[in-house]
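User: BIG2 domain-containing protein, Gemmatimonas groenlandica:
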Amino acid sequence: MSIRPARRRALLLWLALIASVSCSGGGKDGTVTEPTAVLTTLTVALSSATLQVNQSSQATASGLDQNNRAIGVGAVTWSSSSPSVATISPSGTISALAPGQTTITGASQGKQGTATLTVPLAPAIADFAIVDAQFTQGVQVADGSLPMVLAGNAAVVNVLVRASTAVTRPMQIVLRLLDASGALVRSDTALSVGALGTAPSFEAPSVQFLVPAAVLRSGLRWQVLRDPKGAAPDDSVANDAFPRAGAATLATVTVPPLNIRFVPIVLSAHGNATGAVNTAVLPQYLRSLLSIHPLGVVNARVGTPLTTAASFGITPSGGAAPFWQQVLAELDLARVVDPVESTANWYGVVVPPAGFNNTTLGGFSYIPPTTANTGPGTRTSVGVQINWFTRPTQARDLVAHEIGHTFGRAHAPCGGAGSPLDLTYPLATGTLEQSGHDVFAWANGLATSAPTVDKSAGDAMGYCFPVWSSAYTYRAVLAFRGLIAASALTVDLPRVRAVPSAARRRTLVVRGSITNGHQLRLEPAFALDARPSLPDRAGSYRVEGLDADGRVLFAHTFEPFVLAHMPDVRPFTVVLPSDAALEAQLVSIVVRGPAGTQRIDRSPAAGMVPVARATQAVREGNGMVNVACADASARGILVLDSSTGTVLGSAPAASLRIAAASAAAVAVVCSDGVGSQRTRVDVR
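Assistant: Predicted structure for BIG2 domain-containing protein:
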C-alpha cells in the first residue's frame, strides 16, 4: 500500500522520539554516570629477591581497581618483618644485614602487598696459603737446605700455594730479592699454573721463578708474596707470605772452578777412527754435567788428539774393560806430564770403529779420595762420543757419570751397576729421594719452565736411564769439591799428592797394575818433566830403585788406584823426583806387595847405553806419522809435540803411529824399561 507524504512525516517524527527516550538512561536529567575507581589490590615487587649481606634492592608497589585496571597507589608505607635481616627505607630501598628471610610489606589506602626477601649465608671464601718455597739449581731436598752454588747455574724458586677449595683462576705471586742491607735487588711476578688445590707438591709447583746466575750472591735475602694487589682476597693474610717471619738469607757456597780438557782419541789400530769433539759441540758434552752437578765456573776446551794402539776388539761387539783401561792409563800419563793443564780434568772421547754396533762399557774413570789430589789416577776419564748411542742423552750422561767418579763417587745401585758400589746410598733402587727440576734447560732457552724430573729417575752414578742427581750424590759432590773427604767407597783409597808448590822438574814416572790381587805388572818407566806426585801415607806396596850393586837409590810405599767399572784391576803411577845422576846409576825398578814382586831391568844392563841413538818420524799419506826408536829392542815410546810439550801418544813398544798431520817436528822419548832418552826429530 502507499503512504501519503503527510502521514509519512508524522511516522518518522514518532520513531525519532521513541529512539531518543530509549537512549537517555535513568538519570533525572536523562544521562548515564561511571562508578568511581578505587584501589582494591596492591602488589609489591623487589628488584632482587635474593641479596648477599651488604647488598641492596629496591621495592616497588603497583595497584589494580575494582575492574582490574591499573591504578595509582599513592604514598606507600614500607616495613620489614625482620629488620635484623633487612631494613627498608621510606623510599623502598632495602638493605641486607644478615642471613635469613624477611617479608617486605607495602601499605596504601588500606591495602597491603608483600614480597619475600632472602639473604643467604655468604659463600665460603677460599683460604690461600704459600706453604713452601725452595731455591734449586736442579736438585731439591725436603727441607730446602741445599745451598746455591755461586757463579754456576741459574736458580729456580719453586713455590707451593695451597687453596682450601679448588681454584682454577691464575693467581699472582711475587718474588722479592734484597741485598744484605734490605735494599731491593730484584722483583719478579708470575702467575700460578694449573688448578690450586689442598695438596700442592714440588712435582708440580704452583709457581716457578727463574733467577739468573748473575743475580745470585752471598747475603742475598728473599721472600715470596701472594696476591699483593688484592685481586684474590682470602680469609687470612697471615699466610700470604713465605717465609712468614720475613725475608730469609739465601744459603750459598763457592766451589773451585772446574777445568776440563776434552781430548779426541785416535785409534790407530782401527783406521785412525777419531772421537768427534770440537768447540761447536762442547755444549752437548757438557749438558748433563752442568744440569745435575753442583758446579760453579766450568772452563772446557778441546785438546790435542791422543793416539793409542789399543784394540777396541773384534766386530761387531767391542769396548771391553782392557781397552778402556789402556786408553785411560795412556791419557792419564799425558795429563800428568802436561806442561799446562796437569791439574785439570781430562776426558778422552772415543768413537767405536766402523763395524761395531755394541760396546761392553761406555767409559772409564779413576776415583780419587779427595779433591786435593791432582796427581796420577785422580782426574782422568774416557767415554764414547755423542751421537753414537741410540739413546740421545747417553753420551752426555756418561760425561756426568765419569766425571762424577773423579769427584770421589762410587756407583749407585741402579741398573746392575758394578763394583765399586756405594753401600751407603739411601735407596736400594738407586733412584732419587725427591723429584728434580731441569733448571739448566730453562736458563738456556731449551724450555719455558724448569721441567720436573720424576723421582723414579736413576742417580747419575748408576746404570739406569733416564738419569739425574740424587740429593745424596749432590751433597757428596759438594762436600768433595769443598775439600772435604766424602768418599763412600768400601776399599782403601790411595792418597797421592802433588808435592806442594812443586815446579815441573825432571821426574821418573813408574807405572803398573795389579790384577785380581796377585798379577803384578810393570810398564816401561819414562824420565819426563812433570810435577812430582808422591804418596802422603804408607801403603801396602813399595817401589824401589836399585843400582848395579843392588843398593837402594829410592823407596816409597803406595796404594794402587781405584778404577770405576773394573774393581779387579788396581793401577798405580808414582812420579818420583829424579836427576841425571840418579838415572845414570839406576839399573832396576822393583815393586813389592801383597800381589808379589815384579822387577824390570835396564836393557842392556852392562854399560847402560841409551836406547835412542837416533829415531825416525815419517809422515804417512793419511795424516799419521810413523815414529820409531832406532833400537828395536826399546820397551816403550812416548811422543810429544815439540813446541807445546803435549803428549801425542805412547805405547809399550819401540814404535808408534800418531796423528800429527801438521807437525814439523816431534819430541820422542824411548825407554829401555828403566832409563830413557828424549830426542827432537824432524818429521819427513
